[in-house]
Request: fold
Amino acid sequence: VSTQLFAAVWGHSNFTYAEASLTQTLPDWTGSHVRAFEYFGCAPHVLTPDNLKSGVKNACFYEPEINPTYAELAEHYGCAVLPAKKRKPRYKAKVEAGVLVVQRWILAVLRHHIFHSLAELNAAIRELLERLNDRKLRKLKQSRRELFLADDRPSAKTLPEKPYEYAEWKKVRVHIDHHVEVDRHYYSVPYHLKGEELHARADNAEYVLDVVIVARLPVPLREEVAGLRVRLETPQDALQPRTDLFEREIAVDLLGRPPLERQETDLPSLPVDIVLMSREHLVEAPARVSGKLE
Reply:
């Protein structure tokens, strides 16, 4: 079985992390990042990945489109993502040199060995990786680990309390019966969003809908609120196949200000209605409330 090599290298100290994975798919890609940060004990300020689809959906040096899951991972650790320029390996020269070093000092040593599991292979890689990071550099007379602890580690970001939990994002459209389909499961959403395109976040525990409210806006106002997201983090009980009773309705201010700070303006009211659904409260649906763009 062929494996893929993941390598991460710090810019100043050349402190290196390497492991083998079965694929370059999104779960393996994000999982390698999480284990790399745990190995370093900190997180960098900037990530410079290659332009594989698991990290960058559309490669562009000026406005790259980052994979939503990878962007969420970077946000979790407080990192900025600046992908390397397409077909320009010099923009990530550190990791290109790091891959060469790993091939010479780790893979070359293991080339005649036979491993019966991925964990066994990574255990052998970790042992040689420690030797690589503790090896003295010829000119600097210091090891990569010593340089990392002296220079890179003090200026790095501390890790959050919990590691990133893998989740996938998918574009879905609300059907005429105000349901969306995610992995052959159907979830009800507020009926006002019928026909709209939503972003569904799927993890091991629940589905949370991240609603992008851009449609239905008057043309002169579209540019002012383009890309604005209103997140509906409703409980799991609220995302059932059939929900026709509503607990309450919330008028959403698109600028995020509290209701007491809103002022009347001449701008038209926008049809933005967010409903939190619940089957635990047998109450009638309240009257329609519209938010205003101020």
